[in-house]
Every structure is written in C-alpha cells, then in structure tokens.
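Ticket #4471: structure export looks truncated?
Reporter: QA, pipeline team
Priority: medium

Steps to reproduce: submit the single chain below to the structure queue and open the exported record.
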Amino acid sequence: MRVLILGATGAAGVLLIQEALAASHTVVVYARTPEKLPEETRNDPRVTIHKGELDDREALSSAIMGVDAVLSALGPSVSRGPMHPKNTPLARAYSLIIELMRSHRVRRLLALGTPSIKDPNDKFSLQMSIIVNGVATLARSAYNDVVAIGETIRTQGHDLNWTIVRVPLLSGANDKKFVVGYVGDGKTGTWLTRAGFALFVVQELENNEWVKKAPLITLP
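Actual output as written to the record:
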C-alpha cells in the first residue's frame, strides 16, 4: 500500500516509517521539519516527502492524494506537555485530515491515542487512573487535546475505517512484544515500547481486526 505517515519526525514516527517499509509499503511523509528525519529515510526512493503545517489545507491535501491509508503518530510533545496550546491544535488538525481523506476517498485511518480517550470496554484500573489523572492535572491542555482527538475521530470520522491506537507510557526499548485489549482487563499494563506501537499499527493496517475500535496496546 501507499501510506501517509503523520508525526513522522518523532521517535515513534521514525519507527513507524521503518516498520511500514519493512512490510513493503511505500511511504509518504508530511512534516513541518522533514530535515529532522534520518538521512537514510530522506534518501530512500520508497519515501516521498511533503513539507507543511497541519493547518495548511493545500499542502496536506497534496500529501493525502493517492494514498491508501493514513497512519498517524501525532501527539502532544512530552517535554512540552504543560506548555501545550489551549486551542486543541491536534484535534483541529484531525478535523481537516478527515475532511481531506473523505474528499480524496481515503478510508483507513490509524491514529495514536492514549487512555485519556475513554472506551466503553474499559474497566477500572488504579494504576491507569493515577497516570491519566496525573496528565490531566499537570498537562491539562495536552489532556484536553487528546480527548478531543478521540471525539473528533469518532464523530467526524464516522464513515471512515478508523482505529484509535491507545498507548500507555512509552519507552525507547527495542522489545516489540505487545498485547491488545482494554484498560483494566487483566492483561494490559502501563508500558509499551515505541517499536511495539509501530509494529501493531502496520499489522493492523493489513489485518483490520480493530476497525472503529480504540484498543489499548501494552507490553505483556
């Protein structure tokens, strides 16, 4: 498939590009600062790069045109969490992304989320409750944006084949193992590697087992 990857210059995004290429997909990258990509990625003939902002309708439309799916690693910066803008910029970006996907007849969206986005299948977990409440307290604007992302995808993307890939705390380890479930189900935990996130997204792109669902992906 030809896939558009958003959030590609972040740590998870770089791994997502690598995983997509390893699965024989061709990749389109849309990034504000594509020079942050590894040199080998920038020079890979299987990768097409578009430069632009998330609110640039014309540039984003050009990137979406002709792809089969959108894979997004967009999320609030951990280092800037408390300084995240208050106007839910990522959720507003998803609103435009969904509109442009519809106009270009692109149906599949896999988007990074967190347990701050609630799901009816979730059960109570003390550990996860502490984490989510901590984010809501210390980085309220980032929390609000993530929650708004979930609402935007579920409502405005009602006719798309979306999957919200909810992840807990992320680490940079190389372990790609993961389990898929929901908060408090007895098998999911509170950590996942970015490599595990990337592998799940690419596998779900091919398997379509979690369409219109928001599973939690964690280390076993």
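Status: closed, not a bug. The export was complete when the record was re-opened. Leaving a note from the reviewer for reference: The beta strands are 2-6, 26-31, 47-51, 69-72, 108-113, 161-166, 169-171, 179-181, 191-193, 216-218.
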